[in-house]
């Protein structure tokens, strides 16, 4: 399954630490497609491919317009999507990831692979460790790492939307649409940080999202500093 990561000219430099942490904690064999505009001025790992979606208008609303065009052009029925500021902080739990992949079936719109669904609280148990958001939960639509049903994403990823509009407005539109948003209660496949908060590029946040008492091991941060990745 391909992983698609979107970026913009303002944020494209984050792909360098993103790729370093991804290959450390996921795999250097996993294919990652970066969707952006101007090609980064640093060398990407062999498993990363950069695709330009055209010339940036420097307008946050171009995010949905250009992503929609691209996703309409691909054959993938399911894929993983995230953004460049979501840094992996811990080895991926592939057993849990494979468990979630069994829910790639009709009637499922999004399968979250982080702790996000669990921390939304508005969820119901399905079986064992698997849960789903209620039909009226907040953030049924989210840009947090998820396995997406492409057709479902395109239904709500309309032109001229910012990521925040997609999440907030899109979530309202999904209320009672009878599609399921799946997640886990524990043993999450992916642990991540939201690296840039409030547009502050002077400080990278290496705290685990929704688990702020945990942080990326200092030895890994030192390695990135030593190699001039950050």
Produce the secondary structure layout:
Layout: E1 3-6, H1 15-25, E2 32-36, E3 48-52, H2 62-73, E4 78-83, E5 86-88, H3 94-101, E6 108-112, H4 116-120, E7 123-127, E8 130-133, E9 146-149, H5 150-156, H6 163-174, E10 180-184, E11 192-194, E12 207-208, E13 211-215, H7 218-226
Parallel strand pairs: 1-2, 1-4, 2-3, 6-10
Antiparallel strand pairs: 4-9, 5-11, 6-9, 7-8, 8-10, 12-13
What can you tell me about this protein's structure?
28% of the residues lie in helices and 24% in strands. The protein has helices at residues 15-25, 62-73, 94-101, 116-120, 150-156, 163-174, 218-226; strands at 3-6, 32-36, 48-52, 78-83, 86-88, 108-112, 123-127, 130-133, 146-149, 180-184, 192-194, 207-208, 211-215. The protein is built from 7 helices and 13 strands. It starts with a strand and ends with a helix. The mean pLDDT is 96. A 9-stranded mixed beta sheet has the order 3-2-1-4-9-6-10-8-7. With 230 residues, it is of the alpha/beta class. The longest helix is centred in the N-terminal third of the chain and has 12 residues, at 62-73.
């Amino acid at each position: 399954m391909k992983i698609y990561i979107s970026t913009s000219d303002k944020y494209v430099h984050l792909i360098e630490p993103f790729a370093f942490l991804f290959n450390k904690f996921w795999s250097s064999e996993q294919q990652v497609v970066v969707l952006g505009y101007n090609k980064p001025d640093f060398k990407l790992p062999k498993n990363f491919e950069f695709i330009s979606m055209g010339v940036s208008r420097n307008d946050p609303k171009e995010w949905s317009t250009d992503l929609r065009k691209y996703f309409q052009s691909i054959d993938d029925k399911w894929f993983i999507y995230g953004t460049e500021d979501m840094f992996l902080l811990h080895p991926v739990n592939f057993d849990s990831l494979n468990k979630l992949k069994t829910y790639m079936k009709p009637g499922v719109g999004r399968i979250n692979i982080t702790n996000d669904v669990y921390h939304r609280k508005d969820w119901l148990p399905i079986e064992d460790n698997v849960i789903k958001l209620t039909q009226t939960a907040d953030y049924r639509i989210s840009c947090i790492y998820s396995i997406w049903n492409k057709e479902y994403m395109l239904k709500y990823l309309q032109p001229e939307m910012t990521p925040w509009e997609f999440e907030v407005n899109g979530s309202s539109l999904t209320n009672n649409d009878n599609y399921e948003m799946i997640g886990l209660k524990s043993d999450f496949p992916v642990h991540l940080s939201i690296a840039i908060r409030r547009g502050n590029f002077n400080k990278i946040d290496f705290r685990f999202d929704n688990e702020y008492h945990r942080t990326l091991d200092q030895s890994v941060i030192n390695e990135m500093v030593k190699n001039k990745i950050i």
